[in-house]
């Protein structure tokens, strides 16, 4: 747009003057009797960018200037669902093997992803997109992929927000893809995260994935006894440190559930946390587990008493749930 | 986080003195500010400043939240008394529709127009679902929706493993976008709104899997959703990821829409869901001291993941999930209403905040907060006179009634 006074693209270093823009309809200020629902008063910058993006997409132009434009769009509207596939398609062309700098297009792109992710930790599209670029890199220039670089960015992102769901999801995919279940650094990372904050449920979940993921995903038939006993001890140790932390209890329960182990063997451990004289070591989760242990012992009366205690005294916000559990006992 | 942990400790002492029941009788009960909520939702249905550009693709969702909010407040006739105005809004929603030779559906915003249907202006599952819900809210009879073409597209979005992609690049046939159980829900909802079970029933005896008589892979979808269940009973974004109340709702809703939700299979999920309601008292007061995410003000509210803050939207995702499983009565309704109306309802602007640390309400949290009020309809909290909500469609009972009367005419 050579004649526009202040184009948002004037410092881009690219020439867009040959493109015929497809502008967005403008709102007629004289006809506001029935404005459209949720009508956004677009800024001039946004209008200009969209008016150029549309013809470029329509022509499916794969060029550096198109790449630059998608960056500008993503910065303003990360939820634009096709600009991501357009950007990917552009990269696919620019990084083709017959191009001299094909591989650096992809490594630069990973750096770009990193920058976008750091600027906006809630941008969840970026992680899916990053996964696609890595696939492309592995397909075309496998020796250019730097797995340590991935560790660095993941570590950084999780230090910024140690419960960021998108980043943990990406990490999970990453572990599965490169079979990092037993990698020392991976285990150390997640143990450190838990030691840093033993209430970081995302970290507990990741540990569960590392330890029992291959079994659950049917990649292996059994879990080593030593792994099971180590993890049970780990959970018990952290429960003892903070008996009211649900994450460690869920972890312990999860191991028993997934391996179909008998929870009766937890009884002596659990009853350390059900003595009301010692308020500081009382845990509602211990009582909940105790009620289930009583059921397995076929002592429904005792189980009923526990649910009554939970409902009336220990955890009254779930009074209806504990009553429901109690009512179910008669059915068992 | 550091700052947040200081007031917590001060309040901890008060709490240990008080009795441990979630709602005390003496305090005056906070009330739902109905008029302010009406004004709040009205605002989003009009002109919005350019700061909303980033939400351009989610426009139909914002319309849905706001319009459905008004509908639950029984305020649509009040806000849109004029039939021709309603009609022009209906037309405007249809302006977002895309019809190709084989497919029909909606795009998220008119910014996608002129980018080429085959590649960059595809039908989007989320936009399609929101558009259909908005049309129902506006009283439209869906006569301009071609349900066979729409369902063809929904089917096209399904992956081998039973999950759904949000959209497909028609030229290459590539399924694009993040795979997520949200799209399972949106696909199932579209199918339900299209009355696809009835459609197939009417065509019994026809060859299955023809161009006209076909269905999504129901078994595959069911299997996929079940595979997302975590060891603690909640559902996650992928197998073995951390369970999350919002994603749990999406999975359960999808199953409910395809008649595959059997509560006896989800008892551990009920357990996960009821434990999302937060409550700090004498027996877990150490959390207020040691857990940086524990706050006394969150009492009664719901978190979405274990050891997180209460957030308005999770009150809805949990209550609605429990409702789908026949367990809404397991919730402590006064505690959650107390939390929402005292902590996250904006007393002047109307609407609900995401958490009590936020400053500005947003349409999603405002709508979902209101939905929770509709579940319980408790007059003591000013929640009487609201319409009931259907937990599967997430529409008012009266709009679901309107949907029931719709007869599709297939070409």
From TrEMBL, chain A:
Protein name stated in the entry:
Protein farnesyltransferase/geranylgeranyltransferase type-1 subunit alpha
Query: InterPro entries per the record?
Result: Prenyl_trans_a (IPR002088)
Keyword list (alphabetical) reads: Magnesium, Prenyltransferase, Repeat, Transferase
Q: What class of enzyme is it?
A: transferase
Q: Which organism is it from?
A: Ambrosiozyma monospora
Which Gene3D superfamilies is this protein grouped with?
Protein prenylyltransferase
| Cofactors demanded by this protein | Mg(2+)
Q: Please give one Gene Ontology molecular function term for this protein.
A: CAAX-protein geranylgeranyltransferase activity
TrEMBL record, chain B:
Keyword annotations for this protein? Metal-binding, Prenyltransferase, Repeat, Transferase, Zinc
**Which coenzyme or cofactor does it need?**
Zn(2+)
| Pfam families the record matches | Prenyltrans
Pull one GO CC term from this UniProt entry. Answer: CAAX-protein geranylgeranyltransferase complex
List residues of the Prenyltransferase alpha-alpha toroid domain: 32-378
Map out region (Disordered) in residue numbers.
1-33
Highest taxon of the lineage: Eukaryota
Which GO-annotated molecular functions does the record name?
Answer: CAAX-protein geranylgeranyltransferase activity; metal ion binding
Any coiled-coil regions, as ranges: none
Q: Which InterPro entries match?
A: PGGT1B-like, Prenyltrans, Terpenoid_cyclase/PrenylTrfase
Family the entry assigns: Belongs to the protein prenyltransferase subunit beta family.
What is the protein name given in its UniProt record?
Unnamed protein product
């Amino acid at each position: 747009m050579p004649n526009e006074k202040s184009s948002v693209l004037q410092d881009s270093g690219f020439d867009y003057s040959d493109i015929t823009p497809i502008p967005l309809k403008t709102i007629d200020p004289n006809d506001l009797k029935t404005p459209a629902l949720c009508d956004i008063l677009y800024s001039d910058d946004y209008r200009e960018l969209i008016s150029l993006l549309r013809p470029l997409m329509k022509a499916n132009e794969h060029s550096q200037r198109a790449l630059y434009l998608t960056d500008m769009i993503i910065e303003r509207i990360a939820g634009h669902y096709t600009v991501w596939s357009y950007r990917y398609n552009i990269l696919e062309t620019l990084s083709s093997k017959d191009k001299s700098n094909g591989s650096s297009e992809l490594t630069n792109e990973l750096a770009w992803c990193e920058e976008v992710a750091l600027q906006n930790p809630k941008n969840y599209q970026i992680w899916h997109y990053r996964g696609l670029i890595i696939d492309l890199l592995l397909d075309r220039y496998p020796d250019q992929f730097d797995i340590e670089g991935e560790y660095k960015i993941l570590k950084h992102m999780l230090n910024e927000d140690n419960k960021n769901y998108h980043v943990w999801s990406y990490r999970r995919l990453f572990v599965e893809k490169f079979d990092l279940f037993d990698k020392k650094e991976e285990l150390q990372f997640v143990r450190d995260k838990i030691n840093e904050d033993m209430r970081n449920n995302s970290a507990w979940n990741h540990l569960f994935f590392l330890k029992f993921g291959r079994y659950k995903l049917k990649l292996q038939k059994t879990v080593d006894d030593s792994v099971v006993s180590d993890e049970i001890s780990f959970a018990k140790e952290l429960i003892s440190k903070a008996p009211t932390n649900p994450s460690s209890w869920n972890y312990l329960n999860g191991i028993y559930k997934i391996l179909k182990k008998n929870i009766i063997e937890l009884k002596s451990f659990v009853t350390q946390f059900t003595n009301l004289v010692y308020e500081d070591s009382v845990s509602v989760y211990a009582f909940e587990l105790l009620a289930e242990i009583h059921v397995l012992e076929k002592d429904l009366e005792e189980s009923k008493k526990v649910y009554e205690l939970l409902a009336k005294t220990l955890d009254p916000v779930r009074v209806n749930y504990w009553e429901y559990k109690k009512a179910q006992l008669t059915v068992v | 986080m550091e700052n947040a942990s200081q007031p917590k400790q001060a309040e901890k002492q008060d709490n240990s003195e008080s009795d441990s029941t979630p709602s005390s009788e003496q305090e005056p009960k906070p009330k739902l500010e109905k008029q302010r909520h009406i004004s709040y939702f009205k605002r989003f249905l009009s002109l919005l400043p350019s700061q909303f550009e980033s939400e351009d693709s989610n426009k139909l969702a914002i319309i849905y939240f706001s319009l459905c909010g008004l509908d639950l407040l029984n305020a649509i006739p009040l806000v849109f008394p004029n039939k021709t105005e309603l009609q022009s809004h209906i037309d405007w929603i249809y302006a977002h529709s895309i019809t190709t030779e084989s497919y029909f559906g909606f795009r998220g915003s008119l910014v996608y127009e002129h980018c080429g249907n085959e590649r960059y202006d595809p039908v989007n599952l989320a936009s399609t679902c929101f558009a259909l819900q908005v049309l129902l809210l506006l009283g439209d009879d869906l006569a301009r929706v071609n349900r066979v073409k729409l369902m063809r597209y929904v089917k096209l979005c399904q992956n081998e493993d039973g999950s759904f992609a949000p959209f497909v690049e028609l030229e290459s046939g590539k399924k694009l976008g993040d795979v997520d159980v949200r799209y399972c829900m949106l696909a199932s909802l579209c199918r339900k709104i299209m009355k696809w079970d009835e459609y197939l029933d009417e065509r019994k005896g026809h060859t299955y899997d023809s161009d006209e008589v076909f269905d999504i892979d129901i078994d595959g979808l069911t299997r996929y959703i079940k595979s997302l269940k975590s060891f603690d009973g909640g559902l996650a974004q992928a197998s073995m990821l951390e369970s999350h109340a919002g994603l749990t709702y999406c999975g359960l809703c999808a199953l409910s829409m395809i008649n595959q939700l059997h509560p006896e299979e989800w008892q551990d999920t009920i357990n996960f869901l009821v434990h999302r309601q937060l409550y700090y008292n004498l027996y877990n007061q150490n959390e207020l001291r040691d857990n940086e995410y524990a706050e006394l003000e969150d009492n009664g509210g719901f978190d979405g993941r274990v050891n997180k803050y209460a957030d308005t939207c999770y009150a809805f995702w949990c209550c609605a999930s429990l409702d789908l499983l026949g367990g809404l009565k397991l919730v402590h309704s006064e505690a959650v209403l107390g939390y929402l109306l005292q902590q996250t309802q904006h007393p002047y602007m109307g609407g609900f905040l995401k958490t009590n640390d936020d400053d500005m309400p947003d349409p999603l949290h405002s709508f979902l907060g209101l939905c929770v009020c509709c579940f319980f309809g408790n007059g003591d909290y000013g929640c009487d006179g609201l319409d009931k909500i259907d937990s599967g469609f997430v529409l008012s009972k009266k709009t679901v009634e309107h949907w029931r009367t719709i007869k599709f005419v297939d070409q």
